[in-house]
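I had to read the description of the data format several times before I understood it. The format is easy to grasp once an entry is in front of the reader. For illustration, here is how one protein appears when written out as sequence plus structure tokens:
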Amino acid sequence: MMSEEPASRPALAQAPFPAPVSTTTSPAWRNPWLLVVVLALGLTGWQWVETRIKLADTQQELARRLAESDSVSVESRALARHAQEQRAAVLGRLGPLEARIAESRSQQAMLEDLYQDLARNRDE
């Protein structure tokens, strides 16, 4: 039995190793998935930059409109204040005019009464 063992051992030791599997891998830049990922990242970056630019433009437009709205609001308040002052002035002048009109009407009524009395006395 011993004689067989040394003979089998050298046979195993001399067994050829399997040949390495040749994997022909293409360079990384030829991989289509890598191209898709790079394009997706590029598109995402471009979209992010575009969104930031539009957001900045929108913020500037909003700031401009707010400033314009504030100036219009200030102008409207000044015009409203001026209109109230004019209204108060007109009402101040209207009071005495109404009093004069009332006095004039009463005088006219008295004159009509006097005219009626004079007309009756003349007929008599």
Notes: The chain has two helices and no strands. The mean pLDDT is 84.
